[in-house]
Write a structure and sequence with these properties.
binds zinc ion; alpha+beta; 3 helices; two-stranded antiparallel sheet; elongated
């Protein structure tokens, strides 16, 4: 009988710990999602970002073309070309056939 309780003893605390941390996480999430202070800050920031200065930022983000594995960005014209257009490679610099 003593062995059975010995086996059970080390296991129970672990389960209890996991359950505790899970519940703690849930509690933290539900509390961190509701504060009205955060909402107020976001609204204020958005109000600030509306004026023209931020528009150029958005344009920049749109211009960035996601590169594919078979593409590279030329270090001279900064355009994204297919790998077949790769004329030269110098260290980290890739140069397309148009700029070579
Ligand atoms: Zn180029």
């Amino acid at each position: 009988m003593a062995t059975i309780t010995d086996y059970d003893a080390p296991r129970r605390p672990m389960v209890d710990l996991e359950e505790d941390s899970l519940e703690e996480l849930k509690a933290r999430r539900s509390t961190s999602g509701s504060p009205s202070v955060d909402v107020d800050e976001t609204e204020a920031a958005e109000g600030f970002e509306l004026p023209g200065a931020d528009l150029s930022d958005e344009e920049l983000t749109v211009t960035v073309v996601p590169m594919r594995a078979d593409e590279f960005r030329c270090s001279r014209c900064f355009l994204v070309h297919h790998r077949s257009q790769l004329a030269r490679q110098k260290d980290e610099q890739l140069i397309c056939s148009e700029c070579a």
